[in-house]
Amino acid sequence: MATMDVLSAKFLRSCLHPHAPFLPCPSLPSRRYRQPFSIYCRLSTSSPSSSSAATTSEGDANQDLSALLSDESTTAAPGAGSRTKRPNSGASSIPSGVRLENISKSYKGVTVLKDVSWEVQRGEKVGLVGVNGAGKTTQLRIIAGLEEPDGGNVVKAKENMKIAFLSQEFEVCASRTVREEFLSAFQEEMGVKTRLDQVQAALERATEDMDLMGRLLDELDLLQRQSQDVDLGMVDVKIQKLMPELGFVPEDADRLVASFSGGWKMRMSLGKILLQDPDLLLLDEPTNHVDLDTIEWLESYLKIQDVPMVIISHDRAFLDQCCTKIVETEFGVSKMYKGNYSEYVLAKAIWVETQRAAWEKQQKEIEHTRELISRLGAGASSGRASSEQKKLEKLEKEGLIEKPFQRKQLKIRFPERGRSGRTVLAINNLKFGFGDKILFNNANLIVERGEKIAIIGPNGCGKSTLLKLALGTEKPQEGEVILGEHNVLPNYFEQNQILLPGRSS
Ligand SMILES: Nc1ncnc2c1ncn2[C@@H]1O[C@H](COP(=O)(O)OP(=O)(O)OP(=O)(O)O)[C@@H](O)[C@H]1O
Ligand SMILES: [Mg+2]
């Protein structure tokens, strides 16, 4: 097909030549976004008067047309695509996915990653774990090309790999319909189509300027080659197939994105990514703010995907369900464990124990040697003492076993308050909603001293609103919300809480 496209542009060029004979048009391969070849034929035979009907002066028109021309149209080699090429900087290679080799990264002199090496291939799902700030997102950003590492290699299976990155903030546009949102996944291809249409329209207007027409034809040829990978006729079919897989019903296609909850927006973001058939899928905390049903759905959905995948999550059960490999980042250094999260916890515990035993043994040896040196230090045994000393120095320089680090459990202590009354919160016959949406209708709840309550429910059912009603920041439309009178001080830790300067925790 590539040859055909190049031929068609060449053919058109020949038609442009003032002395070229009029030739019948060959038919083009059928792609929905390609204009029928006959348009070009009309061009070559259109009368000058038709072009003079344009409202702008010829000079202005030509200026507009020139804006349509990319630099590439005159320089690109046949078959060159529009995607940016990133050189494969690694010395080694990988058949699919990506490999990080000895990656390091610092920000303003603070080392975040010291020595990170791991890989993910087709069929593998890597879980990236580590404490807040360990550098997990940084690794994904480096793979996606959004950050440059200071050292090391990012070895990709091929150049121009399609890397999909689902970040913590789901990128959807509230004012689009669901169908429009999915269509936006093909933005690049749609852009090429729009340019194709523009260039073809421009060709119709530029009949008197042979030089400009020639350049426009080069541009047309380039755009045709760029659009070969995508069959826009398949876009609708793909979207219709994907929507039920993501749990959407056909009527959802015309609903506004804004009317869906966070969990559904996550499904849209994921769907948009999958529509582009990525070679690598990077997911940064995809389960944040989504309800239990959606997490379960996501687990089973990701499990059947074959694309190499890297998942950052603090949800152990989720990692257990999805991952085939765990990479832990601690103090800027990565360690790779085969298996899911539970297997990692077990393997790590064994490693820590073995390491601790080896460290303790070595420490005892060192202590013993030191004692020996001080005992033999003087007199006839000083020769042996100095050889023991040399042994000790060599060990301390080269062979010291690292003490395994065990993080202390984080403890949160709330300030002491006097004992409260028995009833801490009473909600009686509560009615509350937003607009037509009723969240609570005749709801009742009693919270007693010492109780710890989990509020569960699907996204958008009103869990946060219930807390706001308890705090008094929302008022019931009917019924009452009563806080206990004695020593009850409500406090609220919001989602995505940001501590602003001057605001205490
Ligand atoms: N652009 C940047 N400029 C300065 N510091 C940065 C930048 N990006 C990341 N950092 C720092 O690098 C460290 C690692 O950040 P990163 O977001 O990768 O951590 P993380 O493991 O994803 O944490 P979390 O679990 O909280 O999401 C943090 O200390 C962060 O403040
Ligand atoms: Mg992060």
From TrEMBL:
Record-linked PROSITE patterns: ABC_TRANSPORTER_1, ABC_TRANSPORTER_2
Gene3D superfamilies found in the cross-reference section: P-loop containing nucleotide triphosphate hydrolases (3.40.50.300)
Record carries keyword ATP-binding: yes
Record's keyword terms, sorted: ATP-binding, Nucleotide-binding
InterPro entries to which the protein is assigned, alphabetical: AAA+_ATPase, ABC_tran_Xtn, ABC_transporter-like_ATP-bd, ABC_transporter-like_CS, ABCF_ATPase, P-loop_NTPase
Chain ranges passing through the membrane: none
Cited SUPFAM superfamilies: P-loop containing nucleoside triphosphate hydrolases (SSF52540)
Example of a GO MF term: ATP hydrolysis activity
Domain ABC transporter per the UniProt entry, residue ranges: 98-356
Positions of the UniProt region annotated as Disordered: 73-96
Protein name: ABC transporter domain-containing protein
